[in-house]
Amino acid sequence: MVGQRVAEGANPSGGVPSPGIPAQVQAVRAEVAAASNAARQEAAQATVKTAKGVGRGVAGFLRPFQRVGGILWLEVTGVFFFLFVVVFAPTLWRTRLSFAHGPDHRTFWASAAIVAVFLYLSVSSFWKARKR
Q: Are 132 and 67 in contact (CB under 8 A)?
C-alpha cells in the first residue's frame, strides 16, 4: 500500500502540497496515521470486550455472597443503631421523674425521642435481616 501511495503521489491535504515536504513523505505519513488509527480502534474494542468479560466473571463470583453480605450489613447497622440506645437510655432513666415539669424536662424528652428513634431503627434493621 505504501508503495502504491508513493507511486501515485497522493497527498493527505487534498492535493495541495505542503511547502518543504515532499509528496512521498506526506503519503507515508498519511498511511502511518491511518494504520495507527486502525490499531487504536482495535485495541479499544479489545479492551472493552475484556472489561465486559472480567465484569461478568467478578459478578458471577460475588453473586452467592450477595445475600449473606446484605444480611450481615443489616445486622451490623442494627448493632450500630442500638449503641445510641445504650448511650442515651441511662440519661432517660436518670431524668424520668422530671418528665412533666422538672428541671430536666427538656433532657428527658430529647433522650426519649432519641432512644425511640434509634430503637425503632435497630429493631427494624434486625427485622429486615431476619426476613431475608
A: yes
